[in-house]
Amino acid sequence: MPTRTRSSTATRTPAKAAKAAKAAKGTRATKSTKAQAAKPAARAASGGGAKWVYLFNEGDASMRDLLGGKGANLAEMTRLELPVPPGLIVTTDACNAYLAAGGFPDTMWQQVLVALKKVERQAGKRFGDAKDPLLVSCRSGAKFSMPGMMDTVLNIGLNDKVAAGLTELTGDARFVNDAYRRLVQMFGTVVMNLPDEPFEEVLAAWRAKRGVANDADLDAADLREVTDEFKRIFKARTKSEFPDDPLEQMRLAIAAVFNSWNGKRAIDYRNAAGIAHDLGTAVNIQTMVFGNMGAGSGTGVVTTRNVTSGERDIEGDYLTNAQGEDVVAGIRETKRIAALSEEMPKIYREFAAICKRLEKHYREVQDVEFTIERGKLWMLQTRDAKRSAVAAVRLAVDLANEKLITRAEAVQRVKPEHVDYFLHPQFDPQDRAAAKARGDAIATGLNVSPGAASGILAFDADTAEQWGLKEKKAVIMVRPETKPDDVHGMLAARGILTSRGGRTSHAALVARQFGKPAVVGVLAMDVDVEKRQLTVGGRTLREGDPVSVDGTTGEVFAGELKTVVPDFKEPHLLTLLGWADTFRRLGVWANADYPRDAERARSYGAEGIGLTRTEHMFFETDRLPHVQRMILARDEAVRDQALATLLPFQRDDFAGLFRAMDGLPVTIRLIDPPLHEFLPAHDDLQKTVTELETRLRLRDDDGGKSKAAMEAELAAKREMLQAVEGMREQNPMLGLRGVRLGIHMPSLVRMQVRAIFEAACICAKEGVKVKPKIMIPLTAVSSELKIERDLLEDEAKKVLKEQRQRIPYQFGTMIEVPRAAVVAERIAEYAEFFSFGTNDLTQTTFGISRDDAETGFLTEYMGKGILLRNPFATLDQGGVGVLMEMAVRLGRTRRPDLNIGICGEHGGDPASIDFCHRIGLDYVSCSPFRVPVARLAAAHAALAQAAAEAKAAGTKKGARRR
Ligand code: PEP
Ligand code: MG
After folding, report:
1. Which of 147, 395, 867, 951 is 20 to 30 A from residue 328's alpha carbon, by CA?
2. What average pLDDT does this structure show over 534-559?
């Protein structure tokens, strides 16, 4: 989930806000002279009161905190002298003051009226003037875009008189009546919270009456009657007349937008997107321009490049003779923007040039809205475009190659989850082909958010949430189109499917932002929400049936498809990660137990193995009996025999790892877990013994087994039970494990060390460059390490002598218990490297069992805010982190060149990686699949630190430029 820089209005100072806005744009120089001057004025205008209202030509892009993203960008476009209809912005501060006090703050409304006069002068029209009226839109605009989450009212300023005057002026009664009915409908639903259905039913009835499919085909007289019917609905439901006074319309609309900040869907969205709840929204009051004034008019929503694939072309949709909402709602079938170059070539050229200019100015791909009113182009919005993971990577690389941004900025613009996407499943090509051959490829729609997902169909958001979130089922949510109210279902679903909507539809925007595979606009598909079924090409799928969607290709399949991890060779991704590598200081290693994992990790860029859990190899079926024999042995001879059998297995394992990591360090951890983990469970054994005893007593021969055989089995099981009982511990995780086990069973350590060095010698002879690092787990006392080191050196010497070879190696320990961190200086006497085992270190620091953590009270703690994050997922910097810092400092006091890494799960978590960078670790080690993410996160950490240091040093230079 994308988290954003939060700024609390309580602590935000004008200077801080201006700086933050600047920082948010990286190293770009914002010409924000007005911002600096205007900010203090927000609190104390010249008359001593606060300034709550800004004209578009009073602000700029740096004022996002105060003017919201939309308002700041409208101001910036005005500053750039682009064709922007004039308007005013009521600030986020005004919203917060309104929400706190339950009413407009002092002087705000007067300021709106004064600004409105100026807008009238700029537009050359007057609000409420029946002859040549100014109509305005009223839109929300928070600091961070929240698509469709808050409210908008268009065509404010219309009443019967104004409508009549406008009809006379334009000679277009149809257009005026359409605008009027939209105002009443939006005012009713948005401002007065009326349901949409009664209004839609009226429109549907009129369409049926006229036998037309679109509202656009209703004529002027029809729409006049529709408007009257809407007003009747308004009155019946609100017990008040539709307000005729344009200023009253505006006043109520502003209040409605303010209130929408705390609407349920806005709160849900902010929770999901990690946006702070105290930012408030600005309100943009803007002169209306009309795309629905006939064939020479139109409206569109585009991105300046393709935000699904990252390709360079302008991408998006438009409609002629329509208002903006028609494009986004996906109710009418839109045209691709390329068609505009044929339909209105001059306008298209002007528009394309503006797109280029905006991209260059913002140094970022933009998402823009435009309207053409009778052959004149107007820009209504620009903002940084949301994008898919694939596009995020490609756009960053392309913009850097085009020198619009630096490589450092390109790296910073790509988020860990974008890289993670490339490691996510896609449909298995063979399975896909088989599904096609079976005729299960049932439809194709727009591929708006890449990735592949299978799941059962859910026809509404609540069902998707119930099944997906609560019952943990894989769900694909299907709708005719999605609305902001559906977001909770979309978040719970694995994938999204809609029959309507375009690339800029709500479903597409939200899916892309949250990385959900999505296919929209499957026009051939009929989604019947009532009957809970979809029909396409003669096939009917019902709720609960499995379906698969491929957001990369736009294909929809009946049934479930197998998925595979994508090929990690996308050239832009490789380039970007290559750049990331030039910025990071932390090494990125992998936790790998088998050669195939090591190979994968290396192909993803791992620079070493930071943890091989050798015990995992013991669990394999051909080894487990020998492991058990070794554990149960009563005398050394039997144990040695079992160990001798295990030795070649381990030698092969290690040789495989050395070969896979030729030239890179391989950290092998000696056996760690309590031995009982290799033996059958106590309760199962007890049951078997009792059963065998009973059978023998009853002479039940268990399918022909001889009595002697049963007695032999019973004896073996009893012996095992006795051994298990002998080893039983109340808290095995705090018992005979880790280094304690090695000390208790030195012959096991000797076997593992021998296997490591024999493998190293074999590989070295083959020409492989081996770099073994031998690691002892769970050390708490330095003398434990001394004993292990002596043992190891003795065995290593023997092997190397036998093999007549010299293999340099390192000996080190994990830091997994608080005591080890506290006495790190003494531990470093014997250890050449430390690796933080933060799974155990978190467990032992908190005293919370790592095995039960997520299933127990920890979830409750997070729900109650006692813990903000799961400390087993993201390092607890204030507790565990303090111990780590201490260990680093003390360890390096004793041994300045002490090599230090981390190999707990936190090694793949971006926030934890940032911390590891700051406390001076040498490397992080994580699962092979997290290696690319860790490479990027390590670069982010280095760039963030460089920026912070540059800031602290008072220099203007931000992150290092390349
Ligand atoms: C750890 O404790 O963080 C660790 C890496 O070891 P394991 O998870 O194997 O206990
Ligand atoms: Mg551990």
Report:
1. 395
2. 94
Catalytic choice (95, 138, 761, 903): 903
For a pocket test of ligand 1, which of 670, 739, 813, 814 has the largest count of ligand atoms closer than 8 A to its C-beta? 814
% the chain with pLDDT above 70: 91
Using alpha carbons, select from 842, 836, 938, 841 the residue that is nearest to residue 888.
836
Q: 495-498 and 441-444: which strand pairing? A: unpaired
Ligand 2 centroid distance, CA of 816 (Å)? 6
- pLDDT more than 90, % of the chain: 68
> C-alpha 46: how far from its chain's center?
44
In eight-state DSSP terms, residue 194 is: -
Distance CA(365)–CA(247), nearest Å, equals 37
Residue 839 Cα: closest atom of ligand 1: 3
Integer angstrom CA distances of residue 304 from 70, 309, 327, 353: 17, 12, 17, 10
Residue to probe by mutation, ligand 1, list 619, 672, 874, 926, most atoms within 8 Å of CB: 672
Please name the residue that has the structure tokens 């012996």: 719
Asked whether the predicted pLDDT for residue 773 surpasses 50, the reply is yes
Of the given ranges (11-15, 793-797, 839-843), which has the lowest mean pLDDT?
11-15
Cα 837 to ligand 2 centroid, rounded to whole Å? 5
Give the model's confidence band at 565: pLDDT under 50 very low, under 70 low, under 90 confident, else very high.
Answer: low
If 0-12 CB within 10 Å is exposed, 13-18 middle and 19+ buried, where does residue 905 land?
A: buried
- Per-residue pLDDT band for 43 (boundaries 50, 70, 90) equals very low
For residue range 201-235, list pLDDT tens digits in order. Answer: 999 999 999 998 888 789 999 999 999 999 999 99
616 catalytic per annotation: no
Helix (H), strand (E) at residue 432:
helix 429-437
Find the 878 Cα to ligand 1 centroid distance in Å: 20
Asked about 138 being catalytic, the answer comes back as: no
Query: Who lines ligand 1 at CB under 6 A?
Result: 611, 613, 672, 816, 837-840, 903-904
Of the candidates 30, 673, 787, 622, which has an alpha carbon nearest to the alpha carbon of residue 364?
A: 30
Q: How far does residue 925's CA lie from ligand 1's centre (Å)? A: 11
Rounded to the nearest 10 degrees, the angle between the axes of helix 636-660 and helix 746-766 is 30
Q: Roughly what angle, to the nearest 10 degrees, separates helices 931-952 and 571-583?
A: 40
CB 504 within 8 A of CB 301: yes
Residue whose C-alpha is closest to residue 781's, from 843, 837, 824? 824
Q: How far apart are CA 124 and CA 788, in angstroms?
A: 88
Q: Is 105 helix (H, G, I), strand (E, B) or coil?
A: coil
pLDDT at 958 over 70: no
Which residue has tokens 């001593």?
A: 48
Q: Which of 17-21, 445-449, 817-821 has the highest mean pLDDT?
A: 817-821
Residue 447: both structure tokens together: 């591929």
Is residue 427 a contact partner of residue 563, using CB atoms and an 8 Å limit?
yes
Please name the residue whose Cα sits nearest to atom 10 of ligand 1. 840
Closest CA to 275 of 105, 104, 90, 68: 68
Tell me the CB-side half-sphere exposure of residue 474, using CA atoms within 13 A: 16
Question: Locate tokens 């030795």: which residue?
Answer: 647
Q: What is the chain's mean pLDDT, rounded? A: 89
Name the CA dihedral angle for 389, 391, 394, 397, rounded to a multiple of 10 degrees: -80
